[in-house]
C-alpha cells in the first residue's frame, strides 16, 4: 500500500503518518525503486493502534510506551484487541441512536433524551407530587445521560419504582424540608430507605462505573434541605458499605 492508501484505510491523514514517522511512533518502510513507500498490513494495524490510543486521550509519549510493551505480541492478539475496541464503539453508537430515537418519539416538552430502559422504568412509577421524588427522577436522568446505570440496573429498580411504600418514604423525606439536621426522624427514615433496596440491585451496578463520583454526590446533596441531605448522606454511606460487602 502507498501512504495515501493506508491513510484512507485507517482514517488518518498522510500528514499524520509522516509526523508519526518523524517522532518514531511508526517505522518508516523501505521505498520501492520508484521512490514510493510500501506499507504492509502490519503497518496498518500499528497505525490503527496509534490512532485508537490518541483518541483515548494518550499523549504521543504515552502511546510510544504502550507500543513498546506491545512489541512482542502476536499480530493476532493485536487484531483481536482492535476488534474488541470497534465492538465497544459500535455498542456505544447503538446506545446513542436508541436515545436519539427516544428523544424524537417523545411528546413536545418531554424531558430527555432518556435511554429506552430508563424511560420504561419511569413509566412504571405512579403519579406523585412529591418534590423529592421529582428530584430523584432528575438525578436518574442526569446519570443516564452521563452513561451511568444501564438496562440491567433499571430493570432491577423496576419493582421499587412501582412500590407504593417507596412513595411513602418520599413523603416522609418531604416532611423534613424545614427540619433541623438533628431531627429525630432522620435516623429511622434513612434506615427504612436503605432496607427498601434489595441487595440484588448491587449485582446490576456496572463495575467501576455504577457509583457516581464525589463531585456528583456533593452536587446532589446540595439540592436538598439540610435535614433531607442528612438522610440522603446516610443512605449513600450505607449503600457504599453494602456495595463493598
TrEMBL record:
UniProt keyword list: Coiled coil, DNA-binding
SMART domains (alphabetical): HTH_MERR
Xref: Pfam families: MerR_1
SUPFAM superfamilies reported for this sequence: Putative DNA-binding domain
Coiled-coil annotated spans: 79-106
Listed Gene3D superfamilies: 1.10.1660.10
Residues in HTH merR-type domain copies: 1-69
Protein name stated in the entry: MerR family transcriptional regulator
Species of the source: Streptomyces flavotricini
Amino acid at each position: 500500500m502507498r501512504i495515501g492508501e493506508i491513510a484512507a484505510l485507517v482514517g488518518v491523514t498522510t500528514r499524520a503518518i509522516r509526523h508519526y514517522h518523524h517522532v518514531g511512533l511508526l517505522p518508516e518502510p523501505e521505498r520501492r525503486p520508484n521512490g514510493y513507500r510500501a506499507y504492509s498490513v502490519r503497518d496498518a494495524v500499528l497505525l490503527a493502534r496509534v490512532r485508537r490510543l490518541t483518541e483515548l486521550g494518550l499523549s504521543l509519549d504515552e502511546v510510544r510506551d504502550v507500543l513498546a510493551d506491545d512489541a512482542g505480541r502476536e499480530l493476532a492478539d493485536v487484531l483481536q484487541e482492535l476488534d474488541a475496541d470497534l465492538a465497544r464503539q459500535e455498542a456505544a453508537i447503538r446506545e446513542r441512536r436508541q436515545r436519539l430515537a427516544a428523544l424524537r418519539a417523545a411528546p413536545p416538552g418531554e424531558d430527555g433524551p432518556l435511554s429506552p430502559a430508563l424511560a420504561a422504568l419511569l413509566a412504571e412509577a405512579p403519579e406523585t407530587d412529591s418534590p423529592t421524588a421529582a428530584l430523584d427522577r432528575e438525578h436518574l436522568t442526569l446519570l443516564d445521560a452521563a452513561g451511568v446505570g444501564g438496562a440491567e440496573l433499571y430493570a432491577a429498580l423496576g419493582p421499587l419504582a412501582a412500590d407504593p411504600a417507596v412513595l411513602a418514604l418520599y413523603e416522609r423525606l418531604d416532611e423534613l424540608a424545614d427540619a433541623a439536621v438533628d431531627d429525630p426522624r432522620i435516623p429511622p427514615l434513612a434506615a427504612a430507605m436503605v432496607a427498601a433496596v434489595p441487595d440484588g440491585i448491587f449485582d446490576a451496578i456496572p463495575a467501576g462505573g455504577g457509583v457516581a463520583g464525589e463531585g456528583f454526590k456533593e452536587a446532589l446533596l446540595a439540592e436538598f434541605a439540610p435535614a433531607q441531605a442528612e438522610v440522603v448522606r446516610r443512605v449513600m454511606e450505607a449503600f457504599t458499605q453494602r456495595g463493598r460487602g
